[in-house]
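Run folding on both entries below.
>entry_1
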Amino acid sequence: MTTTTARTTTIFRRPRSETGFWSWITTVDHKKIGIMYGYTAFIFFVIGGVEALLLRIHLASAESTFLTAADYNGLFTTHAVTMIFLVVMPMSAAFMNYLLPLMIGARDVAFPRLNALSYWVFLFGGIFLYSGLIFSSVVPPLGVTPGVTGNLDPSDARSFFGLPDGGWFMYQPNAGPAFSPGRALDFAVLGLQILGIASLLSSVNFIVTFFNLRAKGMRLLRVPVFIWMTLVVAFLLLFSLPIIAIALFMVIFDRQFGTLFFDATAGGDPILWQHLFWLFGHPEVYILILPAMGIVSEIIPVFSRKPLFGYAAVVFAGAGIAFLGFGVWAHHMFASGISTVAQVGFGLTTVAIAIPTGVKIFNWMATLWLGRIRLATPMLFALGFLTMFTIGGLSGVTHAVVPSDWQQHDTYYIVAHFHYVLFGGSILGIFGGLYYWFPKFSGRMLDERLGKIHFWLWMLGFNMTFAPMHWLGLQGMIRRTWRYDPSLEFWNRIVSVGAFIIALGLLVFMWNFYRSKRRGPLAGMDPWDARTLEWSIPNPTPVFNFAEVPVVHGLDEFWHQKYGEDKDGRPVRKDDADSTLTRLQEIGTNPPNPVHLPSPSYFPILMAAGLPLIAYGIIFHLSLFGKALIVVGALLSLAALIGWGSEPLEEAHMEPAHA
């Protein structure tokens, strides 16, 4: 790439690894890693959506035979695991990876190769988890040798597709060897362990980046809200993932090596699993929703043309939600026979966590109040998030009332509640962010007309799908049910129609994305008249991010470079605002000095590739082949680690020359 000006010309010659297929395999660029996270998560989103449609086709009729009971149970489990661990979490990670350095004025994350490793571990973990669809049907069930039935009923109705059947929560002993003898759950458990490693790596990286690489002058209360939520989520993962890792180790040891952690007949405790799981599982809810809250906190001020009302309160409310999130886990267990004192305590904390959540909601509403609102597509998705998440939050507060929770537990009321939070909240917020930052990723604009069609199709389909589930649950329809009372058939058909409307909206988005990425209008500089630093550099983002590392003088630094105030305190665009943007465009396209960045590396992908081999070896551990897989996987990861350690820490990312 050659750039020419009237002054001395700086020429950057890209190494071969900067372009083509291998540039993606060996990249340590946080932007490319964020894009790969996004594309991978979207593919899993489509897969999870197809699974949901299959479930809704079956449930459109009370006496349907479209799926067997085992396949229905397996699809239900796989859909939930996919959407939580392979869609919402990595979609949020895509934004975090791409935007964290840009929004704090840094050229990269603290540990670029560790960042690459986290993506490849995530990818291999997802592939390993889904490989159970193939391999779990060819590996004999637990305790059964080939050609020998043993104690297993030959008519055992395991899933034809090799799907795990224990629910995403994998309650014991249902997900133990006695009641789930197939291998599918082993793939799910070990797959989740691998995915957890990816999240831990990202968390450490994001925390160090936040505290060490902020631009000069960016004090803690000048950091954008989305970056604050990234930090909060990183700490949540850091403290909650070891808990579920321990629990999953117990499960795999029970299933593979004959231990008895959850076998009540041998002195184990199945309720122990519930405590360990929900100690992770409820912070996980906030791991899923806080990034969307951060995204919405960036979108609403831009399209209201006002600063975020109560910025500090929004930041501290996010931290408060995370802290209280560790104290509400047992409200998932009110029907498990825990003591009355525990029920009262966890009921109170469930009410308390609504307070910081309410602070955020009212601050967003106050930002909208008297603002000059522009209903562009990102703003529509932000407003959709605000309304749908509020409904989900209100239905969640009802779970604090123990007798009410007893009635709602394991019914479609719960399904409605968490979809209003996770789809109406997380997914709408994430797609709002995608419409908002698409120019930053691609340099082009998504089509506004198609974007609004997408939004309204989703709002219609979403509410048709999940609103009726509230009263289906209150009428007694249990979740994870293959058959149901025919009197509930009408509303189930409405729900199924709504699911297909959601699918139609997704198809509209996919066409919009494909067309706009190829032929969409060029975004130019600062297409939204935004407030934060990532918009002060050209679109799409240069490989080096900032030609000159910025100096920050206040919150919403980029906004104040463009706007001053009149005597009444109202924002007034500066006379030199356009020349400021032109100067930033020129500097961002043609940096005055050579920029050094970490060199590409293939060691992260090699190190990550060893983990699924070890996991396959654990499942096949009774055979010589399985033992060999463990050794090969361990040696591959160790060799990659040694090679990684021998690489130089930093090289010239581009070779400068002068013409």
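>entry_2
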Amino acid sequence: MLFKDLGLSPEVVEAIESIGYSEATPIQEKTIPILMTGKDLTGQAQTGTGKTAAFGIPAIEHVDISINQTQSLILCPTRELALQVATELKKISKFKKGLRVLAVYGGESIERQIKDLKFGAHIVVGTPGRIIDHLDRRTLNASNISQIILDEADEMLNMGFREDIELILTRLPEQRQTVLFSATLAPPILALAKRFQNNPEIIKIERKELTISTVEQFYYLVRNAQKTEIVTQIIDLNNLQLMLIFCNTKRKVEEVTDELKAYGHNPISLHGDKTQRDRTDVMNKFRKGQANILVATDVAARGIDVTGVDAVINYDVPLDIENYVHRIGRTGRAGQLGKSFTLVTNDEKYKLRDIERYTKATIEKAETPTRQELIAYKKDKLATRITAELEKPNIKIWSDLLEEYKEKGITSDQIAIALLSKEMKDLAEPERKVYEDRGDRNRGDRNDRGGRFDRGDRRDAPRRDGRSSERFGDRPAASRDRDGGERRERTPRPRTSDASMARLFVNVGRIDRISPGDIVGAFAGEANIKGSQIGQIDIFDKYSFVELPHDLVDQVMDGMRNNKIKGKSINIEISNGKQ
């Protein structure tokens, strides 16, 4: 169905066509007519199906521009996604004179957002925490909000935002349209719909392919110590000009960025410790080609929309299978052919099989190139570059310089040999034995990610609410308060430690009115992990202990640095194991 046949205003149709679209996707075709009537709706759709326009177009048509108040509120799990949604809505509404869209999220000056809200915003897109901040400050007037949209509702629940979402929904006018979009219709989503929606229409769009057909997918079986060197070979052998490299932690992003610079590349990094100004600067440089390699974490890369990306390289296998789909979807866009390369260690091969089952795709194994292949490739590449230089019209200006060298007794052959030596110096070195020279022959596999998620541990995996499947702390559920906190402080006692899990000390407890949901929500929201990845939580009067897979410790500690839980500054340390 064409957009012009959906009963939309001429301004919106003109804006959509100016972007380059004329035909609605299945989710847009099914949901836009329902949302235009004002009915509540629950939509199941994967990323990449066009759901932003599916709810964004009716949101824009819903606005009465003559009323300078917020009328539509859109909740998103991350600031990157909030920015992406707001940007898309601004494009669709560009011919709606006077309509204002505003994104509000943590990590940016709240004073500036307050000023923008006072000026007036018809549609506000934001993260749950920052929306609550503005509601508490009364800088966001909810009295005229007649439409609330939850984008990626399942992801927000996984990140621990349930209480925030419920609080926001209870503070909005009862007479409103409530819209939920989710990749899955799991029981928590249906429970949310039952409580807050009024006889909603349920629309399901099954995506035939989770991955993009224009992306060729490969994997390399490597050791940790090899990874950066393999990345440089992938770049060379595939002649990549613009690429994204994904890592699982902020620390690894910085390490890889520094290592690639040492190899002579021009990378830039993007992760949660960057200020919004820095993020904007990084993305502008990447879009303009001032840096051709962007090394990023998953949460920072949400909302990245750059055309012309030649390839995506998964330096780390993603912790969440769905993130694999998000990652490789950054290439192969607009009908162009893209490639993805995933570096897999021996202990991660089962994760690769899980990804193949989930995506229903085959990821081909690629062999690391031999030294002879690399030499042959670089020789051919250099010959092509020399030929191209010789064909340039201004090449003759170097003749005088050549004559000067000849007068000094330096021949043309000697000059050529010196330049070749500099250009091909890495191939002149003896072949390196990566593991023996670095003293880590056996270390690579031992440091691989996996831990809690190895097959043998799955029966003990934590539930999706982040609590142990059998117990909470060391006490049965009957001894807990309603909010999950301990009724009284108990003396820590020796316990059997799960070797695959790290135990963290957190300096907040029951007297700070902390519940497991507060800890899960903070860790998930700030460190971009799922509640299901958090293990056992023990809450005492003045402190708590939280179990995490070892490979998530740095990510959580980085994410929680300088953050608070319920207004209390957080200090996290690795427990010495005596508690």
